[in-house]
Structure formats: structure tokens, C-alpha cells
Design a protein that fits this description.
Elements: H1 2-11, H2 14-28, H3 32-45, H4 50-62, H5 70-78, H6 86-96, H7 100-111, H8 119-140, E1 146-149, E2 160-165, E3 171-176, E4 194-201, E5 204-205, E6 209-210, E7 221-226, E8 232-237, E9 246-253, E10 256-257, E11 261-262, E12 276-278, E13 284-289, E14 299-304, E15 315-316, E16 327-332, E17 338-343, E18 353-359, E19 366-372, E20 387-388, E21 394-399, E22 409-414, E23 422-431, E24 441-446, E25 452-457, E26 464-470, E27 473-480, E28 487-493, E29 499-503, E30 506-508, E31 516-518, H9 536-548, E32 554-559, H10 566-586, E33 594-598, H11 611-617, E34 619-624
Parallel strand pairs: 23-29, 23-30, 32-33
Antiparallel strand pairs: 1-22, 2-3, 3-4, 4-5, 4-6, 7-8, 8-9, 9-10, 9-11, 12-13, 13-14, 14-15, 16-17, 17-18, 18-19, 20-21, 21-22, 23-26, 24-25, 24-27, 27-28, 31-34, 32-34
Helix pairs in contact: 1-4, 2-3, 3-4, 4-5, 5-6, 6-7, 7-8
Amino acid sequence: MTFALSAYSQNNSKAARKYTDKALEYFKAEDYETALTYFLKSDSLDGNDQDVSYLISLSFFRSDQKLKALPFLLKAKAGGIKEPELDLYLGEAYHLSHKFDKAIENLNAYRSTLRSSEKERIKEVEDLIQNCKNGIELVKAPVEVKIKNLGNTINSQFPDYVPALSADESLLIFTSRRDNSTGGVKIDNQYFEDIYISTKKDNKWSTPEKLGNEINTPSHDACVGISPDGQQIFIYKVEEGKYYGDLYVSNLTGKTWSKPKSLGPNINTPSWEPCATITADQKVLFFISNKKGGIGGTDIYMSKRQTNGEFGPATILSTEINTSKDEFSPFIHPDGKTLYFSSKGHNSMGGYDIFSCTINTETGQVVSKPVNLGYPINTADDEVYFAWSADNRRAYFASERTGGVGEKDLYVLERPKAEASLVMLKGTIIGCDSKKPVAANIIVTDISTGKEIGKYSSNSSTGKYIVILPAGKNYGITVEAPGYVFYSKNIDIPFLDHYKEIDDEICMEGLKKGTVFVLRNVFFDVDKATLRKESETELERVHEILTSNPSIKMLISGHTDSDGNDDYNLKLSDNRAHAVKDYLINKGISSERLSYKGYGESKPVAPNDSPDNKQLNRRTEIEIVE
């Protein structure tokens, strides 16, 4: 570079020299974007100056536009430039262009100029050569994907990146450096980062809007993660006086996002914590840190939520995931076991590649080792911040590609064969009488153990809710809200080899005379009136209603499907209703407040023509009679 800076004036034509002089002022000040403007004007007037060509290529490299450097590097080399690092830059540029054989050739040429004492530099070059070799193998077996730009409704002429999506893909939150930035222009000629939001309706994204001043500040603000239900976002912020940034959380109440709150000292340290992702049950956080004691530069850590709601001490993931190089942008899939992350290690083809592995979120143990997602999902450049759809088919990401709207754009890729073994339960919760949205708590319980798996909330403004249920459990779903009778649902998913959505509008009945509700998580032994232990969680909720409302009286009714003898079904339903009454009396409820009746198969709620419909008819109901 020293030669190029001193020698340009000997070769530059007079017409181009004034632009080169101006460009050099900005180049020396490390304002490479502005330097490029003047260098390129100079080159348009005098395209034969190898020194200017070389300086243009350096400016492209240093302004993160390396792909544009290659033709100018070739011009510089053809012109006779003897800079010692020219072969290195050519190797990097060929590598990024996926011309791996030429890249290896130039990198080996540069490697031969290094002294044996330059061990660090030699290691860097050898690693880059290995990236090229990895790239050759990965490009031989491309994966089948379709990649689509999200279009100019979402993307702008400015950098748009770090997409975060709700599990149902109806909410997109991303970071952008647009000219209406809350913080104005920064010294590097780019605008400060702000967070934007767009919603999808009829398969179309709305025009993005800024999240507001509670979220966006005069400094950098970036959304780096979102909870699957779309009610919580994780934000990266750099507080005044700090060099490194920390992680914060903001919650959505109705239409308002709360002021970001620090995730606390178990997550944030004096080091750098730039990104985070949370499990669908919101109990385990995965995040990145470069704090002391790590395995590489930046590593993936995990932290479990404690009973007080805060996150506990963090533990680093093993060397099966973390390498001596950088790991970045983890994303735990809603299935609760697939961890996606970016890494410069493993068998990366260059920069960060996206890998996936199966992990036990309780222990942090790796179940299946990381696998490179392949080309063209991965390229020789950096792939970071991929957000995957709940069905595992699509990923949203940012990239700088030919034909884009701006510098970095948001894209979606789709692969045809991936699947996720989970159920997404979604919809809205409304009041049966008012038809208005209800802010309710949704409690998910493992029926077999009675253990609460997760607690979620519907949005008070829209009534919308999303609950993710990975395969392998029998789930009890209970919805509660003040002034309403609880609503329950049973979803048994012992095994599932595909993704399934259940769209369910839940109507909440008021706690008043005449209200009837079904106990969907009350179970009996086959052909018996013996309550199973799994019924206790639901019956305790009935007990709570009776205890909290001492004037209420209830009629317990039992119902069966049409299988079997009519008289037998009538007697069985009567005995089962009696068993529920006895349970509540044994819990201290006065018998005068409880009555029971069996109806057998006489009051079906669905045709008895399928196993699912018969299950609906086999039920225990409660009516508030006083």
C-alpha cells in the first residue's frame, strides 16, 4: 500500500489527478465509502492507472464490499503492481467469488512469501485455503433451495438486516440504517441502527414502521431475537460510556412495547453479548459472549430461567459446538431441540456458515453433531442471523446480492424437504358475550406428570396467542382470565413426523349462572368411573373456582359416545359424574353446592362417526346453576 500511495501521481493523468488527490484524503482518514466515490471518478477518466485500481480494491475491501474488488485487483496486477499482499487480496476475492482453485493458487503464492516466524499469518492463510477446499466439496453437492428477495415494501436503499419472526410468520421485526434514523448520521457516513416492524396479512407484508421511542434511541438499537409467540423481543444496545453492548428484553402489552430491560448480570458482562434466542417455552436462553474463559473468540452460552423470572448463571456449550474460532447468532427452533448457529469453525466454506445440530435444552448436551447446511444456503461470505420457520422449511436472512434493493436486503429461502415434529396451536381468545379480545394466561401442563411446561399470554389488544407443542408428550392446555370460567383442551402428541397447525378461536364464558364448560383434561380408566391421576390438575382448577366463589353451585354431568349398550353408557356416565363430585367433596367443598347427573349418549356434541368425534362426546361438563 505504501508504494501505491506514493507512486500514484507519477502515473495518474492530469484530468484524473484532482479526484485521486481528494480520494486519498478520505482514504487516509479511513472514510473508504467517500474515497471510493472519488477513486471511481478518477478511474473513469484514466482507467490505466494500476495504483488507483489497487487503491479502489483496498477501499472495497475496507468498506465491506469485497466482491467488487476483484476486477480492480486484476487490473492492478496486470499493470505491474508489486505489493506483497496483492496475492492475498486476490486469493480472498477469488474465494468470495467461489473461484476456489484460483483462490488456492494465489493464497499459496502469498504463503510462500511469509517467513517461518510469521506463524499467526501462516495459520490464517492455511485456514483460508481449507475454507476453499471445504467450498469445493460443498458446491459439488448443492442443496435444493429457492431464494427470494422480500421486495421493496420491506427492503430499502439502506442496509436492512437481522430479521426476527414470530413462529406463525405473521410478524417481522428487523434492524435498518435508514435516513430517518432516530440517532441521525454517524461518523462512518451510515445512519444509526433502528428497529422496524412489519405484519403480514393476506400473504403481503405491510410497510415497515419504527417501533417507537421507548425502543429506538439516538444510539444504535438492534433487535437480535424474538420469542416464538411474538410477544417478547431481545435488543442489543450500547449504553453511554460503554465500549461493548449488552442484551435487553422488551415485552408487548397490547400494542405497546415496554422500555427495554437489561437481562441482568448472569447474561451481560463487561464483555460483548450481541445476540440471543429463547426456547418456545421461554425457559432457556442461548446467547453469545466473548467473555474470558471461553473456547474461541465468541462462544454460545445457555442460561435457564429461575423461579423469580430472571435468568440463572450461564454455562458454555461444549466443544462439539463451540470451536477455537467464532460462533455467532444462535437460533433455537420452536421444536425445542434443533439449534442453528453461525460458525467460522467446523467445515465452514468461508467466514460464518450456518450449522445445525440437535441439543438437549435441559442439559445442553449435544445429541447430534453440527452439520453444515450446505451450498447455496452457505457461501464463501458470512451467513449470520437466520430465522427459521416453525415447519423448518423457510429461513429469513440478510444478504448483499446482485439485483437487491439496497446494500443489504432481507431474503427468504425455502427448502422442500425439511420437517419439524411439532404442533403450533394458534388463534385468538375472545369473550363469548362481548366478542372482544381477552388478555388470558395459557398454561401448558404435561398430563402424565402434572408438571407445568410453560405459561403464555394472549395479546390484550388482539386476543392473539401462539403456543408451540413439540412431539413426545400428552399436553393439557388451560386458559384462564379474571371473570371467566377456565377453558381446557387436551392435545396428545406421542409421536409426530411432520409439522401441524391447529387454528382455534377460544371463546371464554363468563363466570355466571347458566355457563357450561367442559373438563377436557379429566380422564377415567377404560370402562370405569375411576379418576386417573392425570385429572387432578384440572379438578384443582374447579376446586379453586368453588373456593374463590363460595356462593356458586355446580351441576356435574357425564356423557359417553354411542359405542356399547345404552343402559350401560347411562350408568357409566352417572358414576363418572359422581366420582368428580366425590373428589371435590373430599377437597372440602360442601355437598350442598354440588349435584351430578349422567346422560349417557343422549347429548352428543358431534356425530359419532370418527375416533376424534367420539372423543368429543366422551366428556365431563360443569354447569353453574346458582
